[in-house]
Amino acid sequence: DIVMTQSPLSLPVTPGEPASISCRSSQSLLHRNGNNYLDWYLQKPGQSPQVVIYLGSNRASGVPDRFSGSGSGTDFTLKISRVEAEDVGVYYCMQTLEVPLTFGGGTKVEIK
Amino acid sequence: DVQLVESGGGLIQPGGSLRLSCTASEISVSNNYMNWVRQAPGKGLEWVSVIYSGYIHYADSVKGRFTISRDNSKNTLYLQMNSLRAEDTAVYYCARAKNYPFYFDYWGQGTLVTVSS
Predict the structure, then answer these.
(1) Rounded to whole angstroms, how far apart are CA atoms A65 and A22?
(2) How far apart are CA A30 and CA A71, in angstroms?
(3) What's CA B112's distance to the chain center, in Å?
(4) In this complex, do B47 and A90 lie within 8 Å of one another by their Cβ atoms?
(5) For position A82, what pLDDT does the model report?
(6) What's the pLDDT tens digit per position in A6-48?
(7) Do B50 and A101 touch (CB under 8 A)?
(8) Contact, A103 vs A93, CB < 8 A?
(9) Residue B53: its pLDDT value, please?
(10) Which of B45, B51, B92 to substitute to test the interface with A, most A CBs within 10 Å?
(11) Rounded Cα–Cα distance for residues B99 and B19 (Å)
(12) Sheet with B66-71, edge to edge strand ranges
């Protein structure tokens, strides 16, 4: 199985400041078609998860452009250019290259 | 609006069985990759299973004990859970992926399964 490792575990942020979350996979998520099979999800407190980024760098419908995904192969990053209060919650990366699909352990983003 | 509504959770003794349902509206369970994802209390997300036509897969942790299925006439996804263990205690979400490669664009609200004596 592909192991997904996220860091940091917790990320206190100041509104208006940038934030960055790292995700590493135990094997390359780069498909031969050139896409990276890596998604990012946000689970806000008390809610179901929602997709933020898919295929490594594509913002899902309705996601603000302050969110961006980058990286390739085994190293990926989710960046928030200017954190807003509504961005708090736990962020998860997930690989979709092969089953079983696997998630990272999560990064909790909270306001300082 | 697309809705996925899970039901069937509850308190069950170890070794028991339970069937979860996920009823969909505005999308068809028959032509989407329908998934179950679970979350143990205070823990992260764990993918459980997927079904699409003849494409069916399970996490190793549930293989041989859980069975995913669907009823197209009822537009409902199921998860039959047998030989339940304490470690199966979790909120179970159904989630839709429109095609491969997957991303889950619609999620249900989840149903809690508690395995305890």
Answers:
(1) 19
(2) 10
(3) 11
(4) no
(5) 98
(6) 999 999 999 999 999 999 999 999 999 999 999 999 999 999 9
(7) yes
(8) yes
(9) 87
(10) B45
(11) 26
(12) B3-7, B18-25, B76-81, B66-71
